[in-house]
Amino acid sequence: MFGYVVPEKPEMKIKEYELFRAYYCGVCRSIGRRCGQLKRLTLSYDTTFLAVLLSAAAGEKVQALRKRCPLHPFERRHVISGSSAVDYASDINIILAYYNLEDKKRDRDSAVSAAALAMLKRSFGRLRKKYPDKCCLMEQRLGELIRLEKQKCGSMDMAAEPFARMMEEITAYEPLCTGEETRKVLRWLGYNLGKWIYLLDAFDDIEKDIKSGNYNPFVYQFGYNGQDVEEFRGQIREKAAFTLFYTLNEISRAFELLDVKLNRGILENIIYIGMLRKTENILGIRRCGEVEESV
Amino acid sequence: MKNPYEVLGIREGASEEEIKKAYRELVKKYHPDQYRDNPLSKLAEEKLREINEAYDYLMKNISSGGSGQYGGSSYGRGGNGGWSDSGSDFFRQVKSHINSGNIRLAEDMLDSSRSRPAEWYYLKGLIFMRKGWYNEAYTHIQRAVNMDPANYEYRSALERMNASYNAYRANPFNTRTYRSEPDLCTICQCLWCSDCCCECMGGDLISCC
């Protein structure tokens, strides 16, 4: 994925930060343990968020152990272990990394992605057997996405649909969320999360996509006709902001319906502050120098 | 029934004032207006009912002597009376499908319709909202408002969308933690001023200047 779902560190309590890092390390270790050390390079913040969220929704009893890690040889770090949410998130991390590389390879045939793809192939094959339904649905969605992109879909809502649906599928992992209600809430949360990620990434890539001629939903929705890219971004900024913030609002509403006792501070930080910052930064509506950078 | 203190998110034995405060905040958070046109509205209603029950229970037990001025007036489902019976039978049917969550059927019905008055765009907008297609939803409802500017229902739907868009950014998490702290310049200025004042009075705050 893309690493957009991050906490705003300066606003975290130290214990929340430590716990978040323990989840991060937990996902990383879990990948290393079950898929091989090299695959730890695919780790992303988005799947850490998934681990934190699902762990909270499931009300898991988690355990943080202090362990050594080859990447940080001089200190022991807290690592969440024995959590099925963390294990699930690490599986999803590999699956998404694989799909992402496949996509990259399709776009431009580079040796690097081909090599990485070969490296992931075996782990992916194993995971595909472990989650046959999920993978099948995800591949179906990705197929839709490719088709829409080929057709140069002129509606950003329609273009974002397959990815949003895919995230919906990922977020609602039955064995971890008991109860019809929790599942429903997680589905809506996941749907909007996917939508936000897809559209934010698209807005971020407008310039790149215009140059390279790749598909970008904003370019087709708002009819880019060769003007200055910065000017175009300015024209559509308000429209993009509307959908992005609306989506974030839906995420926060869904989150408030979730019966979360664990990890509440971290999740609130990410949902209400981290994602807001990210959106403002990418949209370019952040008033510079106003906040923490000033010191 | 769940533990009422837990439902309201307060410690056991909290004072009446604390209970009221927590209650007011929660009601604001889960108010039906916040979840209109949202697939999770039923759950929010449920949550609100739970909160109301907990609140009523606590208030009854705290002030058994009376003064239950809030007791009876717990907030119910505020909206939903809004569906006017204007428009044809066809649109009314579509509306009832939307309300009962049968989005696909409602959409099929609308798509099969030949005539496209303002009401059509409005309902289509509502469907898009339920599906999470916010840009389309806004465009459609905007169009309905343009076609029939006098209609209150359309306008209020548009206003609700605008309010939702603003709600997230106006969240207490952002206003509380940001912009309230002084930056370095302000701190320096304060120090300098205090130093001057002290020196005027014969003392000294910062000895080196």
Describe the SSE topology.
The complex is a heterodimer of chains A (295) and B (209).
Chain A lengths: L13 H22 L9 H14 L4 E7 L2 E10 L2 H24 L3 H20 L1 H19 L5 H16 L8 H25 L1 H7 L4 H5 L7 H29 L6 H20 L12
Antiparallel strand pairs in A: 1-2
Helix pairs in contact in A: 1-2, 1-3, 2-3, 2-11, 3-4, 4-5, 5-6, 6-7, 7-10, 10-11
Chain B lengths: L3 H5 L7 H15 L10 H22 L26 H11 L3 H10 L5 H14 L2 H14 L4 H18 L2 H6 L6 H17 L9
Helix pairs in contact in B: 2-3, 4-5, 4-6, 5-6, 6-7, 7-8
Sequence of strands across the biggest β-sheet of chain A: 1-2
The CATH superfamily of chain A is Farnesyl Diphosphate Synthase
Tally of structural domains of chain A: 1
**Beta-strand proportion of chain A:** 5-15%
Number of helices of chain B: 10
What number is the mean pLDDT of chain B?
78
What sort of overall outline of chain B do the alpha carbons produce when their principal axes are compared? Answer: flat
The low-pLDDT segments of chain B are 65-86, 176-180
By secondary-structure content and strand pairing, the structural class of chain B works out as: mainly alpha
Identify the most extensive interface between protein chains.
A-B, 37 and 34 residues
The number of helical elements of chain A comes to 11
CATH class of chain A: Mainly Alpha
Straight-line distance between termini of chain A: 32 Å
Mean pLDDT score of chain A, rounded? 89
Give a count of the beta strands of chain B, DSSP E runs of length 2 or more. 0
Write down the Rg of chain B: 26 Å
In N-to-C order, the SSE pattern of chain B is HHHHHHHHHH
